[in-house]
Amino acid sequence: MSTELSNTNASEIGQALLAARRKAGSPSMGMVLTLVVVTDERDHYDALKVAHAVSREHPSRILGVIRRSPRGAANVDAEIRIGEGGGSGESVLLRLSGEVANHAESVVLPLLLPDSPVVAWWPTKPPDDPAADPLGALAQRRITDTVTNPRSKIPALVTQCRNYTPGNTDLSWTRLTPWRALLAAALDQYPARIRGGRVTAERANPSADLLAAWLSDRLHVPIERASSKGPGITDVALFTGGGEIEITRPDGRLASFSVPNTNDRPVALKRRDTAELLAEELRRLDPDDIYEATVQAVCRLSDADGNAKPPKGETNKPAKQSEERGSGSVSKPVKKPAAAKATSRRALS
Q1: Which fold has domain 2-171?
Q2: Which of 62, 112, 141, 253 fits a 20 to 30 Å CA distance from 274?
Q3: pLDDT at 332 (0 to 100)
Q4: What's the maximum distance between 2 C-alpha atoms anywhere in the chain?
Q5: Where in the chain is the domain with CATH 3.40.50?
Q6: Burial of 154 (0-12, 13-18, 19+ CB in 10 A)
């Protein structure tokens, strides 16, 4: 059922939620978190559609926040949905205009589920520092996606990495889960010394830069970043004395998995949609230590390429060298310890 409120406030919205729940015959609902979706008028339909799909796995109260013009009289319009079209939980779409658009947290805070985690998700352009954003400050986890940033994607990634705070994550990192699992499995099957590597992807692909930084940080070897026509990441290779460990995915769906001295094997490695990525992130609400180490590696590699490090919160122009790393430059390792005889899954964990 759907209820619309015009020129309302948080108190009236809370009362309408309770009344709608009772009218639907569900006075109590087993919701596990509050998902705050910060979007705009153009993209809110697709963003809430994804959130509703994810709520079938993670029952939640979904608060969609659309900030309109801050000019004029303060006004809050709300659309409340229970059940039908609202996923397995409750959905409130808030349209804020006037002065209240600059203080969205004052409307959202009273609507958060008590004693439950809060996750903030920016499906389109995120703030440069999500943890410092008033809505981001309400959340334990803050999810961005630099692929959707209208600015150049690689400088946007570096900005997010420089402003990292525990609890931040990016769907560009989540897209790497199958690649990381395959590479770790490959090193279990062929535990040779890794001498270097190569990540090939579309020129402006934040996931590829994160993957190169992760491999460089965990294996302490140089990782070349090469370009292809895509889609997404098309090839990852690790160089050993006995040959290359290689995963090749030219079509975005099926990959060829190659380990020295064995036959090539086909592996399902399809590109996942946003709902799958978001659902994966909501399964783990504690800070991701491996992602934290990776973003620190991105910053170090960016500095090694000659970037000037801006203070946290400032939006200095990201250095052009970072964007050009996608054209075949080499990611230099920060530290190269004495060579080990073999590399195993533990190195990538």
Answers
A1: Rossmann fold (3.40.50)
A2: 112
A3: 45
A4: 71
A5: 2-171
A6: buried
Where along the chain do the CATH 3.30.360 domains lie?
Answer: 172-349
User: What is the side-by-side order of every strand in the sheet holding 254-258?
Assistant: 265-268, 254-258, 243-248, 233-240, 194-201, 223-227, 330-331
What's the rounded Cα separation, in Å, for the pair 71 and 68?
9
DSSP H helices, 118-195, are 153-162, 171-174, 177-189
Q: In which band, very low, low, confident or very high, does the pLDDT at 339 lie, cut at 50, 70 and 90?
A: very low
**Which token pair is 145?**
């996606």
Across 21-25, 54-58, 107-111, 147-151, the highest mean pLDDT is recorded for 107-111
What's the whole-model pTM score? 0.85
Residue 327 predicted with pLDDT over 90: no
Residue tagged 């380990």 (tokens):
259
Exposed, middle or buried by CB within 10 Å (0-12, 13-18, 19+), for 266? Answer: exposed
Q: Is residue 84 exposed (0-12), middle (13-18) or buried (19+ Cβ within 10 Å)?
A: exposed
Residue 318 pLDDT more than 50?
A: no
Q: Is the dihedral of CA 113, 13, 167, 197 positive or negative?
A: positive
- Topology of 172-349 in CATH? Dihydrodipicolinate Reductase; domain 2 (3.30.360)
Residues in CB range of 115: below 8 A, 6 or more apart = none
pLDDT tens across 239-282, in order? 999 899 999 999 999 999 999 888 899 999 999 999 999 999 99
Helices 289-304, 206-219: axis angle to 10 degrees equals 100
